[in-house]
Amino acid sequence: MTLTIVASVLWGSTYPVIQQGLGYYDAFQISFLRALFATIALVIYFTASRKTRTQLFQALGDRNSLLLLLAGSAFGAVGFWTFLNLSVRYLASDTSSFLVALYPLITVVLASFLLRDRMTVARGLGVGLGVFGTYVIVGFGQSASFSGSNPALGALVALAAAFSWSAYLITTKILIGRKDKRTGFEYTPEFVTLSTFSISIIPTFVIVILAGGWRGLLSTSVQGLAIVLYLGVITSALAFLIFNRGMKIIGVSRAAINQLLFPVVTVVLSYYMLGETVNLASVIGIVLILLGVAVAQS
Question: Which of 147, 156, 265, 296 is the most exposed place for a label (fewest CB within 10 A)?
């Protein structure tokens, strides 16, 4: 529980940090650099661990698991980030963030069908309170509106991001703990996390090239580099690793429920880092989210 909560807090910090990072890079460049620096950090971790380094080569013979790894990377690091970035091109960012924040609800529902992770009344009520609290923050605290260059398309892309992240959580849960019958290799949270980011480097870089932003990777400042290092090492490599470890222990539904804390962390950090105001609606939304998480985890 502690690992998944800490990961959720770290992920909640990404929104105000990315907002600052967009002053130095575009959204697609940030996605690529996150994948790159996360992979470098995790390779260093693997190199320092003899046991993990040995297991790394044993995993290459399981074709079905490799396909799951490819799917997990496509859903998590490539699909989610790309859909998220595209959604704000067509839809107001606050409204987009609310639609993306529906993924804990989507994950709990999918897990009940695909993983036989039992849906309880407390979980349903708690997730409902958390989603409603997010709506209160976005709709009333931030006065979000259904506007943009193409709101309908933006909404569909935002929902695609939510489903993509849910699919990543389900796929990762299936992989972690999976054993190769031939070699006896067990897919650890460390290995799954490294694979997620290393596989995503090429497609995220291709997206940068197609968007015409590869030259911008060569010119940056110390502040910009520090931001993408934080996003890559702390909120990607570290956060994904400890979240996957925690999810292995408590299950995908309970881990996903803790991600309802994202808006709470974002509101608090935006207040301190960006000077944004916190009104009564935001406070009520935060209380609803905290209450929802407590009820769902009971």
Answer: 147
User: Could you tell me the pTM of the whole model?
Assistant: 0.82
Q: How many domains does the chain have?
A: 1
Q: pLDDT per residue over 85-109, tens digit each?
A: 778 778 876 677 778 888 888 888 8
Instruction: Tell me which residue has tokens 């989610």.
Output: 80
Tokens of 178: 């999976």
Q: What is the 3-state secondary structure (H, E, C) of the chain?
A: CHHHHHHHHHHHCHHHHHHHHCCCCCHHHHHHHHHHHHHHHHHHHHHHCHHHHHHHHHHHHCHHHHHHHHHHHHHHHHHHHHHHHHHHHHCCHHHHHHHHCCHHHHHHHHHHHHCCCCCCHHHHHHHHHHHHHHHHHHHHHCCCCCCCCCHHHHHHHHHHHHHHHHHHHHHHHHHCCCECCCCCCECCHHHHHHHHHHHHHHHHHHHHHHCCCCHHHCCCCHHHHHHHHHHHHHHHHHHHHHHHHHHHHHCHHHHHHHHHHHHHHHHHHHHHHCCCCCCHHHHHHHHHHHHHHHHHHC
> What is the CB neighbour count within 10 angstroms for residue 78?
23
